[in-house]
Amino acid sequence: MLGSRIAAFVDGDYNYKTHYQWVDLERISPQAALAVIASEDQQFPFHAGFDFKSIREAVRHNANNKRVHGASTISQQVAKNLFLWSGQSYFRKGLEAALTVLIEWCWPKERILEIYLNIAEFGRGIYGVQAAAQHFFHEDARRLDRSQSALLAAVLPNPRRYRVEAPSRFVFWRRDWIAQQMAGLGGTTYLNRIETDVHRRP
């Protein structure tokens, strides 16, 4: 958030504002929680921070395609967005991996998901699902429906390029794909699997 504010100031955009409001997981629509899992990390309840199957698939894809696919889990994104800076250096990736292990060790899955939903960027200066719900839909985060939640999740790969308020054809396609994935996971009952938290310490 601070980095974006500084960048806006350097660019001469003195009207830049940060929209952000923390809300507890219990005050966030289960549809929104499921949407980000369906979009970003469908193995979130089961892995210990890294989805090695997705990593292998991304490596194979990126070796033969110009459009690069990532394989970061929600836990890795929390480590990056909460503690680190943007960049692709091996040093930063190493710190991200170490912080991901620490996060998975110290925090339950519900806490990781809660933090992710509160710090993810959904548009320029718009951080967290509460600010996004209010800004784009004039709703509270707890009232987001499946379509709205899927649309918010659809811009997460690049919220500066993909816009909730002016969705491109690709964003609409991605929204519909995410909604299908949400249904395929079994709906919001899928979130019950997070509570089992199979990777926590005894």
Write up what this structure looks like.
The chain is mainly α. It has one domain (19-196): Biosynthetic peptidoglycan transglycosylase-like (Penicillin binding protein transpeptidase fold, Orthogonal Bundle). It is 54% helix and 3% strand. It has ten helices and three strands, in the order αβαααααββαααα. It has helices at 2-10, 30-40, 52-64, 74-83, 90-106, 109-119, 129-137, 146-154, 169-184, 192-196, and strands at residues 19-20, 121-123, 126-127. It has a three-stranded mixed beta sheet, with helices on one face. A hairpin with a 2-residue loop joins strand 2 and strand 3. Helix 4 (74-83) crosses helix 6. 31% of the residues are buried. The model is unreliable at 198-202 (pLDDT under 50).
State mean pLDDT (0 to 100 scale).
Answer: 87
Number of helices: 10
* Overall domain count: 1
SS elements, strand count: 3
CATH superfamily: Biosynthetic peptidoglycan transglycosylase-like
Mind sketching the topology for me?
Blueprint (H helix, E strand, L loop, with lengths): L1 H9 L8 E2 L9 H11 L11 H13 L9 H10 L6 H17 L2 H11 L1 E3 L2 E2 L1 H9 L8 H9 L14 H16 L7 H5 L6
Parallel strand pairs: 1-3
Antiparallel strand pairs: 2-3
